[in-house]
Amino acid sequence: MRTWKPAAISGKSYWKPEMAERYTLHEDPRSGNCYKIKLTAALLGLALESRQYDILKGETRTPDFMANVNPNGRIPTLQIGDRFLPESNAACWYLAEGSSLIPDDRFTRAEMLSWMFFEQYSHEPNIATLRFWMQFVGEANLSEQQKAQIQLKRIAGQDALELMDRHLATREWMAGDAASLADIVLYPYTHVADAGGFPLADYAHIWAWIERVQALSDFIAMD
Length: 223
Ligand SMILES: N[C@@H](CCC(=O)N[C@@H](CS)C(=O)NCC(=O)O)C(=O)O
Fold this sequence. Notes:
- By secondary structure, the protein is an alpha+beta fold.
- It has seven helices and six strands; from the N terminus they run βββαβαββααααα.
- The strands form two sheets. The protein has a four-stranded mixed β-sheet, covered by helices on one side. Strands 1-2 form a two-stranded antiparallel ribbon.
- Helix 4 packs antiparallel against helix 5 (144-168) and helix 4 runs parallel beside helix 6.
- Glutathione (GSH) is lined by residues 31, 33, 55, 60-61, 73-76, 87-89, 120.
C-alpha cells in the first residue's frame, strides 16, 4: 500500500482514505478504461465493489442504466456513495487525489494531465477501439463504416505509440521521475495493443516501461 502525503495541497483540504467512502465500479471487466480505475485503487490500497455489465449486449444502453448510472450510456462509472462519476480518468483522479500518484510539482502535475488528455484523444480512440473491434467484435462483423476507419486508426495508433516510445527513450515515467496517473491510465491499452494489431515488439522503450509499471508495489493484472 502506498503512503499518503499530508492531506493539503495549496491550502485546500483533500480526501483521506481513512474517511471511508464506499466505492462501486460499474464496469465490463474486458474494458481497459475500467481496469485503469481498478489498478489505481489497488496501488492505493482502496477497496472497490464491482457491478458488471456486458457492453456487447448493450447493457449500458438501457433506460435504467442511462437514468441511474451514466446518461452517456458507457462504463466505467465510479459510484461514490450515492454519487456517480463517469469518465475513467476523472475516476482515477478522484481516487488518487492527495496521493503520490499525483505529483506535487505544479508543472509535473500539468504534464501528467497532458498525457492523460493524450490518452483520451490520440491513444484510446485508436488503439483501444481496434483491440475491441478485432478481439471482441471480430473484423467480419464490423459495419462498412467501421471497416473504413481501420486504416486511419492504425496509422494514428502507431503515431501515438511512436510518440510514447520516443518520450520513454530518455525517462522512466511519463511525467516526472516517479509513477503517476499518466502511467496508470496509459498502461491498460498499451500493454494489450498487440490485440489490436500493433506489434509491441517494435517499441523497446515502451516494453521496458511496461515492465516498470508491472513491478510497482501492489500492481494487479487486467482480468
Ligand atoms: N472516455 C470514456 C470512454 C468510455 C467508453 O468508451 N466505454 C466503453 C467501454 S471501454 C463503453 O462503455 N462502450 C459501450 C457503449 O458505448 O455502448 C472513459 O474513459 O471512461
